[in-house]
Amino acid sequence: KILANRMPVTLQTLAATLEPLLPGPQPNVVVSPDNAAPQGLVVQAMLQARAAGARNFLIAVKHE
Hints:
By secondary structure, this protein is of the alpha+beta class.
């Protein structure tokens, strides 16, 4: 499942959902995939975020 601002979205609706949430000329997006997330899906989500205007990606990791 993909969440944008804690709201469930699909890969197809991600860019349209993110676009109004991205402020300024160099907006950041935090990517926080879990261990079960397929790498290809994470990359596709990042590409959709880039299409919405994201320029910088921050990867959140959980320490166990």
